[in-house]
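queue> holo job accepted (nicotinamide-adenine-dinucleotide)
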Amino acid sequence: MKKIDISVIPGDGIGKEVMPEALKVLETVAEVHGGLSFSFKHYPWSCDYYIEHNKMMPEDGLDQLKESDAVFLSAVGDPNLVPDHISLWGLLVKIRREFEQVINIRPAKQMKGIQSPLVHPNDFDLIVVRENSEGEYSEVGGRIHRGEDEVAIQNAVFTRKGVERAVEYGFQLAQNRRGHVTSATKSNGIVHSMPFWDSVFESVAEKYPDVKTASNHIDALASFFVTRPQEFDVIVASNLFGDILTDVGAAIMGSIGIAPAANININGKYPSMFEPVHGSAPDIYGKGIANPIGQIWTGKMMLDHFGEHELGNTLLQVIEEVLQDGIKTPDIGGTSSTTEVSDAIVTRLKTLK
Ligand SMILES: NC(=O)c1ccc[n+]([C@@H]2O[C@H](COP(=O)([O-])OP(=O)(O)OC[C@H]3O[C@@H](n4cnc5c(N)ncnc54)[C@H](O)[C@@H]3O)[C@@H](O)[C@H]2O)c1
Ligand SMILES: O=C(O)C[C@@H](O)C(=O)O
Ligand SMILES: [K+]
Ligand SMILES: [Mn+2]
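queue> job finished
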């Protein structure tokens, strides 16, 4: 029996609604497999936890998580309780950084059973590799003075190692896909870091003569995601560009509620973390209508990570079948509830036993 230990952090808002549904699906996946079992350890770290303890997680929180094979997280943030930069940097960004999850991968593809808002979606299937440890997300800088003389400075940090490993990861992914990598740049406006990014991209590209390349400024690239997404295979992007681009990727699929993501530790020292692209969605929390597919598809990425590709692909296929049956939450035009969608996925999975 292959046993996988998973740390579970539902976090805030709809995270608390979609996480139990995804766990239910994973339990069923294990049953169908027969030789696989999950053990889930639950952590209540969230903005509610912050209100009680004045921190997002305990001092030894990372030590607790380190013992598991993976972290399965949903969403962090409740701006009514804790300012977003404090909640995110105290939990989500902290785990990404301390566990050296330097790569964030976020696929987007046209899904059967969902009407893309694009008139001609043309079967797009792409994956964004987001640099996940540096770039525009930096603590370097500060604020001085008050009133009309106030100044805020935020320094972006781009290291050769950081850019190289993200770009390399993209090329390696492309070799097992359709052999094309696009670089998201902005070297026309950002005069130091982006020409540097371009030069690292070009030098890595030389090592992969079999992979075709392109480079687009991020503004144009965002528009191409809308006008011709089918032309992209792998896209490599800095932390902020990747963040924004993957919300666009989610939007052209039909909803941010279905987009999955993985924060990958590539040196094997710490567990990787799996969490959907979406946040805690305070505007719909408590209504029972959050789309659970982002969290469930993220579970599929976790199965892939542990080498269970066949089972992962089956799960994605089942998700599409349920969507084609019209069992959908309101964000993608349906009338079903969160649990109706996950129950339908569970029921279909069980027929495979
Ligand atoms: N990785 C993360 O944990 C993460 C990601 C994004 C935002 N956040 C945090 O979440 C909070 C809300 O942020 P936001 O409003 O900018 O982004 P959001 O992703 O929470 O919501 C954006 C919009 O998408 C909708 N949406 C999101 N997930 C959905 C789902 N599963 N089903 C149906 N609709 C869904 C919401 O209702 C909202 O209208 C903030 O505190 C923010 O910092 C956290
Ligand atoms: O990384 C962030 O900025 C948080 C959130 O927007 C995300 O995409 O995970
Ligand atoms: K998330
Ligand atoms: Mn984001």
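queue> The chain is about 40% helix and 20% strand.
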